[in-house]
Write a structure and sequence with these properties.
The chain is built from two helices and twelve strands, in the order E-E-E-E-E-E-E-E-E-H-H-E-E-E. It is an alpha+beta fold and 171 residues long.
Length: 171
Amino acid sequence: MSDKKIINEYLMDCPICKAKNSLVIREIIYDMPQYGMSLIVGAKCEKCGYRFSYIIPYEIGKKRVIELKIENERDLNIIMFIGENTDIEIPEIKTEILSSELDEGFVTTVEGLLVRIREQVKTICTDEDNCKNYLMQIDRLLHLNEAFTIKLHDNYGRTRIYSEKIKVNYE
């Protein structure tokens, strides 16, 4: 028996290239290992290639905080699944990113998360001096000029960090 099932498939106009009925959207129920039953929504435009996807949980776990101390270059390659409704905190640079500012569930590395934060700052920052200072702080973390901590405030108990270095506290 398959552990995934397409429950819906439909066509829409592409929001990017505006081609009629070119965006194929599929909704799949999938029992993801270590994550549980989920609804995966994926779309791809057959004309321009635009695509998006997101994951919605069918099961919700306990609220918790996952901490990871980044101390060396290998740590930048640690893989993480950031679940929906997970807020991100990096205390050393006084950063908090609310889940509403992030994609709905995504896979990344520690380095990828920092790059994502840096790109987001570039697009929304309005105070040039503060932006430059903040971007320099992120770059220092990327170059491991100092150890730092990532705290994931996981409201649904679905976020995963694939490392033995994590500390988990249930709220």
